[in-house]
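Onboarding guide, step 5: your first structure request.
Type a short instruction followed by the sequence, for example:

Predict the 3D structure of this protein.
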Amino acid sequence: MNALPAPISVVIPCYKCEDTVERALLSVINQTKAVSEIILVDDFSEDKTLDKLYTLQAKHSQFKIIVLEQQFNCGPGIARNAGWDIATEPWIAFLDADDSWDLRKIELQYSWVEENKEIDFISHGTGLWTNDTNVDLQRHGSLIKINPYRNLFRNIIPTRSVLLRSNIPLRFLGKDYAEDYLLWLTLLFSGYHCFRMPLILAYSHRQEFSIGGYSGSLWTHEKRELKCYSYLYHNNMIGFFIWSLATFFSFLKYVKRKIIIQFRD
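The system replies with structure tokens like these:
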């Protein structure tokens, strides 16, 4: 492992995740390039999750692991904000408690940040983990600057992939929105520089929109996405034509997802 930790605070929102959070945490603490601190935010789970977090904190006491307790359940966006607000490092990375990182994620991602000072936030590809997952982790290709309009029609910034400057003043909104998607769009349309790495360095461990996931209800997710477009329109970040086009394509994606899920089930 590289000796000096990267100046990164990792924020993991936790809600009823006692069965998966250790996997997520281990994928952070076993990085080939260590991070400076890990913030586990319990979003008022009301089960044994909080006990699990304190157990993990004690078990891995050689790492700076902070457990933060929310007094109300507010959703993952607000939980991320709570962790973000107490973070002490100049960079923030996000990971959900049911996802994981490749063990070279920080080493490779932070190396791009060190070499490209214009980066405000940087993402990479993610995939669905299987026991046969085998990814070529050689650094190749070049960074791709993300166009805000491209991301408006297809979100290519998974939250588990994001590393961003902690002094950015914007934050996630509440769970009435697709709050992570909205934040990335707001940053892009506000002129922040976002780049994407040509590597897969994070994994989900269940199918997108699977039962039990935060976005498991397709129609609920669709309404949240439409509210994102309305937010951008009413805040003069996109015009009426783009808002109408994005709304139309969003409905098309919704129908496609419904069909895919029916055949998958």
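Each response can be followed by summary notes, for example: The helical segments are 21-29, 49-59, 76-86, 105-115, 148-153, 179-189, 218-234, 240-264.
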